[in-house]
Amino acid sequence: MTRSSLLALAAALAFAVAIVASARRLRTDERHTLVWLLVCAAIAGLAIWRHAIDVLAAAMGIYYAPSALFFLCCGALLWLVFRQSLEVARQREQIRRLAQEVALLAAQVTPDGAAGRSDAGPAASREG
Amino acid sequence: MRTLVILLGYEEEAAIGQTVAEAARALPGADLLVVDDGSSDRTAEAARAAGARVVRHPFNLGVAAAEATGLRWAVRRGYAAAVRMDGDGQHDPASAPALLEAIAEGAELAVGTRFASVESFRSNALRRAGNRLLSSVVSALSGQPFTDPTSGFRAFGGRALPYFAEHFPHDYPEPESLLWACRRGFRVVELPVRMRPRTSGESSLGPFASAYYMVKVSLALGLELLGSGTASEPPTP
Prior knowledge:
The complex is a heterodimer of chains A (128) and B (237).
Chain A: H1 3-24, H2 30-48, H3 52-60, H4 65-109
Chain B: E1 3-9, H1 16-26, E2 31-36, H2 43-49, E3 53-56, H3 63-76, E4 81-86, H4 96-104, E5 109-113, H5 125-142, E6 154-157, H6 160-166, H7 174-183, E7 188-192, H8 207-226
Parallel strand pairs in B: 1-2, 1-4, 2-3, 5-7
Antiparallel strand pairs in B: 4-6, 5-6
Helix pairs in contact in B: 3-6, 5-7, 5-8, 7-8
């Protein structure tokens, strides 16, 4: 096994340890943990079976093998970022709803209807 | 008809007191609610001092959310109608009774337009061209003619009141919510109102923001045409 393979294997292992560690502290849910562990397995697999990329590239009709890897990585990252942006939008909506409810409840229970002052300072008058 | 006047205020401590007082004079039978959209100045205190109930967002949520908060208050307190105005005094409260009258006569959304009559100010060429473009787009998509789709001076009643308490578009809500209302089959009318130049504060849109706004709204309207997720939810009873 070459040094570069060992390096990739070590990186995959370290990544896997980090994933399991944060899963144990409940910072990620099972679905994400599983996906990330599969990513680790893929990295380890490519490190051990060095010609996997060549086989993959040939199957995809790509002459220069590393291009196949770039293509797959970019695709995976794009998908991931897209999912994240959906999640951010969903949570933004939830936070908005919560803030509205807090404001309405505060106006009901306190005579002056004040729901604490923001520390965030002034933002744009119409949020963009 | 129990009526709530919703004034939206963000950083409006200079103008909100006078706006509240003016609204109280113009609509003596109505209750006044100021939605303070997370101002860092004394908007809430000034509104309270002028005699309005105040709902205060803990941080800035945008004008669409502020409108929805006000409407939610109206729904939960059993109001039959609500009229929404800007807290900076641009919307002349003297025009509000006409909008509410339309609601009383069966309209569910009454939109005040500054172009059907009286003076149009607030206008540079770009903005007016933008408004004309938006008007034609909204009119075409809704199948009903509108001259001022960005107007926020509106009265809500019937099904529109609970609907818009729960559903609101992001960011710049007016043209989109107008289209939503038409698509849901709400009875929508447009009436001439008087609007005035701002007495304080500054406009929320510069030229670049205006152009960006046009692009975003066009996209949102286009998505509505395709039947986007939020807009196609059934109205909440």
